[in-house]
Amino acid sequence: xxxxxRLALLVALGVVPLxxxxxxxxxxxxxxxxxxxxxxxxALVDVAVAADPRAVExxxxxxxxxxxxxxxxxxxxxxxxxxxxxxxxVRDAWQPTAGAPEERARFVxxxxxxxSGPLPLLPRRRG
Length: 127
Hints:
The chain has 127 residues and is of the alpha+beta class. The chain contains three helices and five strands; from the N terminus they run αααβββββ. It has helices at residues 5-12, 15-23, 28-49; strands at 56-61, 72-80, 86-90, 105-109, 114-121. It starts with a helix and ends in a 6-residue tail after the last strand.
């Protein structure tokens, strides 16, 4: 679990209710405090409903042998052993010479299930 930009955006959007409540006569510190508490409760709820990262199993399947400068079709497997749905972005961190894509694969894995995604490689050097 990590904090995304959505929480920062939500906190920044608190300027709108702050201005509206201030013009209605509510003290500014009370409006800010209420908004921060509301955002903190939202973040805690998000953490509570998120999948447990300790209950996630990630494996890869690759061919035994590859040739230099020949594309290799591998697979990345994400298995959710927990009780909550997993929404994840996964990147298999290879050395740059393996030719792995930089983008992260998106997975939505229901509880107790497994999803697979392609893992293309293009080796550019031996070893």
